[in-house]
Amino acid sequence: METKFYKYQGAGNDFVIVDNRDEHFDGDNVELIASICDRRFGVGADGLMLLQSHPEHDFVMRYFNADGREASMCGNGGRCIVAFARKLGVIGNKTTFLAVDGVHEAVIDANGLVNLKMQNVSKVENNGDFFFLDTGSPHYVRFADDIDSIDVVNEGRQVRNSERFAAEGTNVNFVQLCDNGIKVYTYERGVEDETLACGTGITASALCAAIRTGKEEGYFPVEAKGGQLEVSFKRSGNQFTEIWLKGPATFVFDGTIAID
């Protein structure tokens, strides 16, 4: 059997997406998904998404990490599947859809940038050396004066596999405050490597930057290795609402995959 796939990227965070409204694709096949995401023997991606039907919302987003396992929320994946849904004609420029962490709103602006509303954040741990919070996925956030000097893969892997985080895993973000926003590098669990951008990690980093700088409301421009994004928010103490992740979501190519 062959199935059609579409490749999208959001600031270098890349995904294989399948229109699964007829549920022909087996989302429980871990080995299949991992093989598709493999960069040497498959299509290659940071993750795979299935767009499925829902009786009350425009669609359902199912997200799988590159290791083939169904995962927590992916912010850039959410933005890319919104762009894909519009390409299919499932939505116009606005949508509400269901993901693993609940219902999300999204708007595609006149420039084609996708604005994705994230879930509210009510708890942020700040122990002085690092922050820890959940923005749909768990994130460790550490600030540094020069993140270009950090070995993101090795240091990120050490944190992700440390005694506290080994069982469930965590994404690890290194953040630098800049004159015009923040710079963020992320090691992602499930991919087990650095990615060029991580939407939930960039969101988490911007919220922590708001706490660190005392910013109550507004936005942070964010520089990732794969491109520019933006996070806006409202803050009351360590609680955040009206969190929006904005950035590009670009179609790359499509094709077919032979599935045994």
UniProtKB/TrEMBL annotation:
UniProt keyword terms in alphabetical order: Amino-acid biosynthesis, Cytoplasm, Isomerase, Lysine biosynthesis
Cross-referenced Gene3D superfamilies: Diaminopimelate Epimerase, Chain A, domain 1
Cellular compartment(s): Cytoplasm
A Pfam family this chain is assigned to: DAP_epimerase
Recorded catalytic activity of this chain's protein: (2S,6S)-2,6-diaminopimelate = meso-2,6-diaminopimelate
InterPro entries in the cross-refs: DAP_epimerase_DapF
Protein name: Diaminopimelate epimerase
Organism: Prolixibacter denitrificans
